[in-house]
Write a structure and sequence with these properties.
By secondary structure, this protein is mainly α. It has 6 helices and no strands.
Length: about 140
C-alpha cells in the first residue's frame, strides 16, 4: 500500500463503478482542473499494478503528460519539452482509441505544446499564452 493511497482514494472515490477504473477517470478529472501533480499520482497508483501489462506504456505516457505540465507550472520549459516528447513516444504505440481516448488528438496536443514551447524558447515568450490543456475523458 502506497503512502499516497489515502489521497488517491479521496480523489477518485466518486468515479467508482463508472465502467473504468476510478483512478483512470480520476486522472482526467484532476488533469482537466489543472491539478497535474495529483493527476500524475492518481494514475501512477494504477500504473504500478500494470507496468509490464498491455496498458503499461499507455499509462506511462499519460503520467508523463501530466508531469510535463507540472514542470511547465514550475517554469521549466526544457524539462517540459523532454517529458512531452517521452509521453508522445509512449502514447504513439497505441491505437486511435485506446482506453476510449482519442490518441491522435492527444498526440496533436503534445506536438502543438512542444512546438509552442520550442518557439518560445528560441524567440522569447509568445504574446498570447496557450489555454490550459483539456483531454476529453472516456465515457
Amino acid at each position: 500500500m502506497s503512502h499516497k493511497s489515502g489521497k488517491v482514494a479521496a480523489l477518485t472515490a466518486r468515479f467508482a463503478g463508472r465502467g473504468f477504473d476510478a483512478r483512470y477517470l480520476g486522472f482526467f478529472d484532476c488533469f482537466n482542473r489543472g491539478q497535474y501533480y495529483e493527476a500524475h499520482d492518481v494514475l501512477e497508483d494504477l500504473w504500478l499494478l500494470d507496468r509490464q501489462g498491455r496498458d503499461g506504456d499507455f499509462y506511462r505516457g499519460l503520467i508523463q503528460l501530466a508531469g510535463a505540465f507540472v514542470l511547465l507550472q514550475k517554469n521549466r520549459p526544457r524539462g517540459t519539452i523532454a517529458l512531452l516528447q517521452l509521453a508522445g513516444q509512449n502514447l504513439s504505440k497505441y491505437s486511435d482509441h485506446h482506453g476510449s481516448l482519442d490518441v491522435p488528438g492527444l498526440l496533436a496536443l503534445i506536438r502543438s505544446r512542444t512546438e509552442h514551447l520550442s518557439r518560445s524558447s528560441e524567440q522569447g515568450p509568445d504574446s498570447a499564452p496557450l489555454p490550459a490543456p483539456w483531454i476529453n475523458p472516456p465515457e
